[in-house]
Amino acid sequence: MYCGSGLGISTIFAEKAAELGTVLAQNSHGVVYGGSKTGLMGKVADAVLEAGGEVIGVMPTHLQKREIAHASLTEIHFVESMHVRKAKMVELADAFIALPGGGGTMDEYFEVFTWAQIGLHEKPVILYNVNGFYDALLQLFKKMLEEGFIRTEQKALIRVATTSEEVLHLLKEHK
Ligand code: AMP
Prior knowledge:
The protein is an alpha/beta fold. It has 7 helices and 6 strands.
């Protein structure tokens, strides 16, 4: 799960992050994420734990203070760098979901999206477009397709959900 280390202005983001955490736990999906208790990251983790699910955090030691590690995760890995964090998260996860977030979330999303494009993994990469947050990005994807920078056969890799049920459906579809 990739999402903002902040909460965002609108409360809808936190509401939907928590709802997704609950729905995932209720459907026996564990969550791997950055290990922080701040922002949407913390909301997802709290909701999964409250619903009895499993949460694995992966946090670089240099961020430990700034992002404030979540104290009650099922498991937490402390790693030496951002690169190791991202690699560890990719190794542990069976699928990737990006909720609204900032540059960090986009970096993580595009890394796994582009790795799927070049065949480095076959795990689904899902953009959870809460409240139209990613509409502008979807416009850009459309342009990239139209102008030939994303190939037609790669279009299927752009998986978009607008509700937590759709996220669940995309996960099941892939299984
Ligand atoms: P953000 O979406 O910017 O709030 O960041 C969400 C998560 O991505 C946080 O756990 C950040 O530590 C992480 N992050 C921030 N910047 C980067 C980056 N350049 N590369 C990878 N992860 C990052």
